[in-house]
Write a structure and sequence with these properties.
Blueprint (H helix, E strand, L loop, with lengths): L12 H26 L13 H11 L12 H4 L47 H10 L8 H9 L2 H9 L7 H12 L8 H4 L4 H11 L18 E2 L8 H4 L1 H14 L14 H4 L8 E2 L21 H9 L19 H12 L33
Antiparallel strand pairs: 1-2
Helix pairs in contact: 2-6, 2-7, 4-7, 9-14, 13-14
Length: 378
Amino acid sequence: MPNLTGGREQMGPQAMCRRTLLAVVMGAGLTFGAQAALVPELGPLPPIQYDKAKAELGKRLFFDKRLSGDAGIACATCHDPKQGWTQNQPLSDGYPGNGHFRNAPTLINVAYKKVWNHDGRIGTSLDDMVREMITEDYIMNMDMRIMQERLKQDPLYLEMFRDAGYGEPSNGGVRQAIPEFLKSLTSRNAPFDTGKMSTAARKGLQLFKGKAGCIQCHNGPLASDGKAHNTGVPENFGIFLNPENHQAFIAFALFQGIENYMNLKRDPGYYNVTLDQADMGKFITPSLRELKYTAPYMHNGMLATLEEVVAFYNAGGGKESRKSPLLKPLGLSEDEQRNLVAFLLALSGDPLTTAEHIWQQPFPAEYSAIENWKDVRN
């Protein structure tokens, strides 16, 4: 029967409730749709050019233990090509005599980033990142003046530095050559990029961009917004219970000027960049590319599998008073979680353990960074 007061049918309380609920759901969907439209789309990584002579020099330097203080470790010790150019353990190894307090991030696609380190404390250039890794006492502990003189004693380096246009071996040449090699470590033939995703992965992509809301922070070609967020990842107390790992944390915190660091029992994250308590526990959004090879996950390696990662976010992240308001329980079914994992795996391409990326030129065996490195060549 027509409603003469407004041209609408009369509705009972239940009908009114259903309409209100529908309006809320549609409104939320429209709001998220508007937000999603503002973030960069996922997409293939753009081509990256590099100088082959400089990259070849950088590759040899990357695998050379002489770049560390006691010639005991190389860049490749913690960024092993057989382990996704990272270490498949929660906390990375550090300089001999101490450990590290974070998980080693993969170096695949690192040349595309604008900020480096889990806490984002390097945001100028990749050669500055290389300098920090070589000189920090809990990482490679090298005085670059000594490193320069070591390299000058190697006839092959004299030749390679000249061929790369650097003249004789120098600190500046090292800081430029290693990033040139890192430019060659890019994702290749990922199903997402080639359009050859499985049905499950395609469903996962729709969840990623829709119901799961992952694209709010994981967007653009790297699937990362490059910003700092607090997701409530549980602390890895091995950092504080293991003296070797704690030693590295203390050295880091002391250098960064973090107050009360001896009593601190959490990784401050982005706080050490801003010294703003609101940033305590925030970390830079990691890229989601090449996850197939880079377990365990998170800045401290606390989640062992992608299934655990998806379940963590499905629950709305961890328990943390400063947690990002973007994180809410998702209500994904088990099947939806499996589809989301399938999509995440579709962002991984061919493993970069080919001869192209493994050092083949001779240098003294005692400085070989990877045991039996010939075994990882195709």
